[in-house]
Amino acid sequence: MAGIPQKKTWRFRCEICGQPVGFWDESDHRRTAHPELMGVYRQIGQRYLVRYFPLAMLALVFAVVSVIIHDWWWRLGLLLGLYSMFAILIVFGVFAWKKEKPVQLDIEVACPVCDRKVTKKVLRPHLSEVHAEIYRLMKRTFWLLGPTLYGFLIYLLVLIGLIILDVFGKSFLAYALLLLFGPLFAWVTILAVVGVYMERRYLRPARVAWQVLRPPSP
Predict the structure, then answer these.
(1) What is the rounded distance in angstroms from the CA atom of residue 95 to the CA atom of residue 105?
(2) Is 8 helix (H, G, I), strand (E, B) or coil?
(3) Around Cβ 81, how many Cβ atoms within 10 Å?
(4) pLDDT, tens only, 81-92
(5) Interatomic CA distance for residues 85 and 25, integer angstroms
(6) pTM exceeding the 0.90 threshold for the entire prediction
(7) What is the tens place of the pLDDT at every residue in 12-58?
C-alpha cells in the first residue's frame, strides 16, 4: 500500500549468526559483529600453518617419494602417506572445532523461523519448544545427511586403498573415477535438493506464518 514503508528483506544470511545481510556486506559483518570468533579463526589458521600443514606435507612427500623409488613396498608407502595426511587433517579438524565451539555457543543467532535472537547454546531448546515441527524436520534431515557423509568418506578412503593396492586389477581403473566422484556428486545433489525443498516447503511458510501470527514490534 502507498505510504507504508516496506521492510527491506535480504536474500543472504550470515553463516555464523543467521543475521540477514547483503551478499557483499557479509565479510564486513563478520569482522565487526564477531571479532572474538574471527580471532579464534586466526589462531586456528596460525596453528595449522605452524604444526599441521608441515606434517601433512611431510606425509604427502613420503607418498610421492614412495612412488618415485618404486620399490616393492611403494604401494604400501603411497597408501601410508595418503592415509597419514588424511588422519592429520582430521585431527586438525577436531582441534579446530574444540577451539571454536566455546566461542560459537555464546554467539547470538537469529532463529531460522521467527528471527528471535538467542545464543547457539539455547537455540536447540528454543526450536524444540517453540517450533517443534520444524525442529523435528531438521533432526530428521540431519540424521539422513550426516551419517551418509561419514559413510561416503569411509567409502572413499577404502576405495582409494583398494585402487592403490591394485586389488581389482588394471581394468578396474576405467571405473575408478566414476566410483570415486559419482557418489560425491550424488550426495551434493541430494544435499542441495533437500536444502531447497526444506527452505521452500517448510522454513519459508513457517516464517511467514509466524510473522502473521506474531508481527514484529515497531
Answers:
(1) 16
(2) coil
(3) 20
(4) 999 999 999 999
(5) 36
(6) no
(7) 777 787 777 777 777 888 888 888 889 999 999 999 999 999 999 99
What residue segments make up the domains of the chain, in order of their start? 123-218
Helix (H) or strand (E) holding 119: strand 117-119
CA 59 to CA 44: how far, in whole Å? Answer: 21
Q: Distance from first CA to last CA of the chain, Å, rounded?
A: 17
- Cβ 88 vs Cβ 56: under 8 Å: yes
Q: What is the DSSP string of 10-35?
A: -SEE-TTT--EE-GGGHHHHHHHH-H
Residue type, 56: A
Q: Are 60 and 85 in contact (CB under 8 A)?
A: yes
**Residues with Cβ within 8 Å of residue 34, at least 6 apart in sequence:** 16, 17, 107
Which H or E element spans position 187? Answer: helix 176-198
Cα 86 to Cα 24: distance, rounded to the nearest angstrom:
34
> What sign results for the dihedral spanned by CA atoms 38, 44, 48, 50?
positive
∠ CA 169-174-179, nearest 5°, is: 95
DSSP secondary structure string, 57-85? HHHHHHHHHHHHH--TTHHHHHHHHHHHH
What letter would DSSP give residue 4? S
- Residue 68, number of CB atoms within 10 A of its CB: 9
Residue type, 206: A
Could you give the 3-state DSSP secondary structure of residue 109?
Answer: strand
